[in-house]
Amino acid sequence: MKALVINCTLKKSPEPSNTAALAQVVGDWLTENGGVEVEHVRAVDLDLHPGVVSEAVAAGDDWPAVHDKLLGAQILVIASPTWLGRPSSVAQRVLERMDAMLSETDDDGVPVAYNRVAGVVVTGNEDGAHHVISEINGALCDLGYTIPGQSWTYWHLGPGPGPDYLDDERGHDWAHRTGRAMAANLYGTARALAANPLGAPPS
């Protein structure tokens, strides 16, 4: 089984990413407890052109390779910081490109996002995590991903400016415990769908 973590931080590598650090907790559980092969992608490092198609929209567009990774993974985690109480602009770009998956099916007419599970990781200094989770999960559900119960984790220290996740240990125990529960629920649901896959929707 494979998992893809798309980190939608605004920070390019090799700058440390708070969002990557919390998403790593989820990925580590999947690897250590489920033997899942986990790949982390930092979207801001790629040249993802605007658009709502899976193919390249211009020379140098890196989205087709990400699309291939999505189709190769049974588990997807979208990880985003909170900015102005909303998902990052990078997360929005990723979701817009994924929009093309609405019209993609396999040879049996099954939408390509069916029988895949997804969850969300959020970090930020201000409240709004539940709003970010609901926006991203809503989009992924529209595409056909299965969203298990409690398939998210987040970290923040309340409203207003404050320390970053990597700079303050407060709240880590809860965020990590919730992240491990998230990983377990994603893995269990992915296994259930593999054993009993959804078919094509009724005509």
UniProtKB/TrEMBL annotation:
This is Flavodoxin family protein. Residues 1-135 form the NADPH-dependent FMN reductase-like domain. It comes from the Bacteria.
